[in-house]
Amino acid sequence: MSKPGSATTISSLLLFLLLLLLHATANTETPSTYIVHVSQPAARVSSSLLRSLPGPTPRVLYHYTLAARGFSAALTPPRSPSSAAARTSSPSAATASATPTPPTPPPSSSRTPPASGPTPTSPPTSSSASSTPASTPSPRQLRRLRPPPPPPSWRGSCHPSFPCNRKIVGAKFFAAGYEAAHGPVDESKESRSPLDTEGHGTHTASTAAGSEAPGAGFYSYARGTARGMAARARIAAYKICWASGCYDSDILAAMDAAVADGVDVISLSVGASGRPPPFHRDSIAIGAFGAAVRHGVVVSCSAGNSGPGAGTAVNVAPWILTVGASTVDREFPADVALGDGSVLPGVLLYAGEPLPTGSVPLVSGSDCGSRLCIPGNLDSAKVAGKIVLCDRGSNARVEKGSAVKLAGARDDHGEHRGERGGAPGRLAPHPGYHGRGEGGEQDQELHPVRPLAVRESDLPGDRHRPRPAAPKVASFSSRGPNYRAPEIIKPDVIAPGVNILAAWTGESAPTDLEIDPRRVEFNIISGTSMSCPHVSGLAALLRKARPGWSPAAIKSALMTTAYNSDNSGRTIVDLATGVESTPFVRGSGHVDPNRALDPGLVYDLQPDDYIAFLCSLGYGPQQIGVIARDGVSVNCSSDTAKRLSSPGALNYPSFGVTFSSDADAVTYGRV
Ligand SMILES: *[C@@H]1O[C@H](CO)[C@@H](O)[C@H](O)[C@H]1NC(C)=O
């Protein structure tokens, strides 16, 4: 191995850097952000490396020291392959790799999954999601709710713009990668600070660790006392997503800071769009390895909202706790009765003025100028006073709803401008109807210009409809098999992710639409983004109760104690198919907070187990070095290296097997 800072190291780093730059097809004038993973302490090599490049020395965005080892910088790709080649010197085997950060790693798990039903809520208590009647907390209650001061080991801090308290003990933001690509954060649209001006972060943080909040609810929905899974845990917020997306360099910097600050659990409701990248090119996988395997921090991630197709799950590395979305035993049904007597069951979050009794004419969006209900394209004269049927797809549901509302309002002398007396859910800025609830599929959406009559079975006293069987797996929840390692079943577990009530920012509307003037303290939304913090909170409880457990042991406990039957005794149903789910859909099952405390059996893992796993997948020393930072010391075929006969031989709490014939036999050992 090269000594830190030696000439060989620098030149070999440069070589890898430039080789990768050659593959960049970007505009040769525009700098792109590259993450450079190095085998030596990053600060030492980055400045000499970058100074050795021709032209002005590029600016380093971040140094990574704990979650990863390396740095990110905005670099201009070489003008031509030959000029780049001329700058490289002798090749050697130091571990380094530079990867351009993806153009826009999207806000990943979206909070309003395209195929999800709307919104019931669930309190952050996983299986037993019940609320109690609302009341105003007494001063004594409020004191009791206040968490104790953070332990002396806490090294985090809050940005000066964001005062810390006993609950929020850290607040930082990471925008350098975003700004290198997009220019400065547009402060007319969002706050260049840790302040959440969007809502997703507030919702997920309060689901994981929100204090008890009596009197919570979204208008008349889901009223009661809400509490996070680990209500006495403290929260450190690391803001990484901005108006146009979340960038790898920022995500990795946030993970690095979280490890440095001394967090116990990282809850990351973010993931790649599309297929999961290979582990050595997946910044979340790389950062999670550093956090979980090197530094003992549990990393819990959303599986994604790209279901129900096979192989859609992201964040699939075995050192990540990967969470899919389930329903709870609460929904907000709203039926539409058609003139022919048929009834379309659906769900709705709306608490405004009801429709007039009697029939309301139904028109198709395609007969009114816009099949998809694109704002501005609907003919006001044709839709006014009617229910509009919009085709699914293309634009967001909230936008279809607002298109109908706007068209209707224009013809209605402004009667529908703004919201009167209450409110629809996030999925409908005005009353909207979405077929089939609970994260199921539907093909079309009905958008009445005037409110539909709504029946809420969630309200106390309503016995029109029995409580639905729960949990079920939401259609949108991303599924296995694991695209990168089919032997490792993903998701690992499922947790509530449909119609979840949790805190919301006062800085944006519950719909996130600019035309929506409402501000709420709580909102009801869906996605694996909501499932992930349920499990993160559970992991925090386990950390506290079982301080000696490794992240792998905590994950093992959650997986081996998960349950696989719903509250009617049937195997958990997959809403995408209506029949029993498989382990590729629900993983090891639905988390069980109480049983996880005492699993009886734990499958633990050490760093060299994961390295052997990567070797068994065929990763080379350089790729493994990027993930595990062992540099050239990783030699998969050395006599002393731990070996796995197959990736499925990893001491993981579950395994998948691919059989090539009926006669195939596979044997795996577990410890
Ligand atoms: C890896 O180990 C094998 C077996 O000991 C050895 O033959 C090989 O040279 C080693 N490779 C490297 C790159 O050190």
UniProtKB/TrEMBL annotation:
> Where do Basic and acidic residues bias regions lie?
184-201, 404-420, 435-463
Matching Pfam families = PA, Peptidase_S8
Q: Using the record's annotation, list all stretches that form the PA domain.
A: 361-409
Alphabetized UniProt keyword annotations = Hydrolase, Protease, Serine protease, Signal
Report the SUPFAM superfamilies cross-referenced here: Subtilisin-like (SSF52743)
- The UniProt transmembrane annotation reads none
List GO BP terms, alphabetically.
Answer: proteolysis
Q: Which GO terms describe its molecular function?
A: serine-type endopeptidase activity
**Which family does the record assign?**
Belongs to the peptidase S8 family.
Annotated protein name in UniProt: Subtilisin-like protease SBT1.4
